[in-house]
What we know:
The chain is mainly alpha-helical. It folds into two domains: 1-59, no CATH class; 71-172. It is 72% helix and 0% strand. The protein starts with a helix and ends with a helix. The mean pLDDT is 92.
Amino acid sequence: MGTKKTLQAKLQHILTTTRKAEMVAFINAEPAAFDEAIQLALTGERPYSWRAAWVLWACMEDNDPRIKPHLKSFIELLPQKPYNEQREFLTILQRMEINGDDEGHLFDTCVRIWEKLGLQASVRHNALKMMAKIAKKHPELKQELKLLTETHYLDSLSDGVRRSVAKILSVK
């Protein structure tokens, strides 16, 4: 048990005192640190949870088997997270294969995030990317996605984000 506490303390220190490259190097060199970073991301313990989620997507593989057992937790916690953690959770989830009820729950959560027009553009943008990924598998959702990208949803976004939205929508 002491080793786990030591690893947790070391990871917490690294997350708050080093640059991203050093964080990634530590997690890649310490396999147990990846699992510890997942736990920190899910706890909501500040300032570690955001940083842990932020570094996880840089250390993970697409459809990472180390993330799979925690997918449901990432999806369920998403709506409760502050916007910066939502953005990082969405970035992680975009790299994962999600199926079944989890997919529907995630799509609904992303719709609620997208519809918050005052929310930071990067969070909304990541929510839209996740919705588009799900709609690609479920063509019946494409019409809903089209309705969700009408002008009033785009007005608060920068030109660059609007171009990205157009590109996302043009991908079949």
